[in-house]
Each structure stands twice: as structure tokens, then as C-alpha cells.
Amino acid sequence: MEEKGISKSSVVDTMLEAVDIARQKQDVTNMLKACDYFMELLEMKPSKRIVTDTLQLDVSSSIADAIELEEKSLLLQRKEEVNESKESSQP
């Protein structure tokens, strides 16, 4: 990339130039796209994490005349995608 003159600085400069052009043309869509890219670079977007809740119920039943116990196990699991802000994910 460096051989082609592409660096972090040149990429940011190009993005700023694109924002200026969009601003001159009053092109809100492209201005918002540029803001979105900058938010990603600055890690301003909330990160996502998966929350898993597990519930295990063990049920035993016996028959009065039988010696053996019959055991049944039930496992419930729920996964949820949660957005969390960068501030709350830091220790």
C-alpha cells in the first residue's frame, strides 16, 4: 500500500475531501456515510455481545413398587444479542 502512496493519513484526507464535496452538493446521504465510517474508525459504535441464559431442571420420579428411579433432565437455553456501549464494556 505504501508503494502506491496509500497510508492512514491519505485515507483520512480522502474521506475529509469526500465530506467537503458532499457538503458543497448538500448530499446528506454521503455525509452520513462518511460520519458512519468515522464512527467506526473512532470505535464510537456500541459493540455487540451474545448473552446466554441456561436453566437446567432435574426431575426425579419413582414408582412405589419399583426399585429403580427414573431421572429426567431438562435443559433450556436462550441466546440474545445485546448492544453495549464502549463505556460500559471497559473495566
Write a brief structural summary.
With 91 residues, this protein is of the alpha+beta class. It is built from 3 helices and 2 strands, in the order ααββα. Helix 1 (8-24) packs antiparallel against helix 2.
Question: Can you describe this structure?
Answer:
The chain is α+β, with helices and mostly antiparallel strands. It has one domain. Helices cover 38% and strands 35% of the residues. A two-stranded antiparallel sheet has the order 1-2. A hairpin with a 6-residue loop joins strand 1 and strand 2. The radius of gyration is 28 Å and the shape is elongated.
Strand tally is 2
Number of helices: 3
- In percent, how helical is the residue content? 25-40%
How are strands sequenced across the largest beta sheet? 1-2
Low-confidence stretches: 63-67
Secondary structure blueprint with pairings:
Elements: H1 8-24, H2 28-41, E1 47-62, E2 69-84, H3 86-89
Antiparallel strand pairs: 1-2
Helix pairs in contact: 1-2
Features:
single chain, 91 residues, alpha+beta, two-stranded antiparallel sheet, 3 helices, 35% strand
